[in-house]
User: Fold ABC transporter ATP-binding protein from Streptomyces muensis.
Amino acid sequence: MTETAIEAAALGKGFGRRRKQALDDCSFRLLTGSVCAVVGPNGAGKSTLLSLAAGLLRPTDGTITVLGAAPAAVRERLAYVAQDKPLHPQLTVADTLRYGRELNPGRWDDQVAERIVAEGELEAGARIRTLSGGQRTRVALALALGKRPELLLLDEPMADLDPLARHQLMATLMADAAEHGTTVVMSSHVVAELDGACDHLLLLGAGRVRLSGPLDDLLAAHRLVTGRADASLDPHTVVESRTTGRQTTALVRPEGPLGPSWQATAPTLEELVLAHLRAPEAPALRLDDVREAAV
Ligand SMILES: Nc1ncnc2c1ncn2[C@@H]1O[C@H](COP(=O)(O)OP(=O)(O)OP(=O)(O)O)[C@@H](O)[C@H]1O
Assistant:
């Protein structure tokens, strides 16, 4: 097994005759066994990136290597759950799982697929078209995990689920990934649901990588500081700063000791992401051991 699950080098994807860049010059590296959160505002390129990794789109620039090969060459070793969760509407839940089994001979894990369906109390005989959005999500995830993939690509998998189902499915997903060493790449707008589940972060903005690396390293590279509005933050890199009255609160990347003017705490994942979303001009930071120089 290769140590790198996904490697993107100057990856770009343009659409249409004008080649509008959905992704531009993206380089990052994700180690096997990581659970990676892909976050970013609407239109940032998250779905495009996941489709490229799944081999459903081809790059217009650069390269993406998945499980050591071109994505199209390793399709049977990965599973992709797209945002719209395409399933055959006329099939029953049981038929859908049966097709999953037939299409993945030698790989299929009946136990995990059946468990995910059973946890949602879905009737085996129910047709897909009669299911709610959240119930379809459950069937799509059962199909994806049943395939026993080495790489699981999930595009906003929890968006349709009620909070309890979300919590429970996330726990099942993470336990299964940990048990089998599955690499998981999951996009989401709900940062809270990623906290505690992910160990790698990829933040995209306007088609570019803004943050990439092990979550702990990215969090450790930032400090949330509070101090007097007239205190200087030189020479630190200020990601975002807000002043209310006489007080400034900022997210910074310290270049050394912060000094006595500032009270500093470690940011949460949500604070890290929100500050970068509010400050799209902040410089990018990559801590994922890419071979190229800094972005
Ligand atoms: N098939 C396509 N044809 C033309 N443009 C596209 C196509 N797919 C995506 N785009 C454009 O590429 C950009 C990135 O889209 P993408 O769906 O990857 O973003 P996203 O981060 O997943 O957004 P969201 O959070 O809204 O799901 C957008 O500007 C979108 O309009």
In short: The longest helix spans residues 163-180. The mean pLDDT is 92.
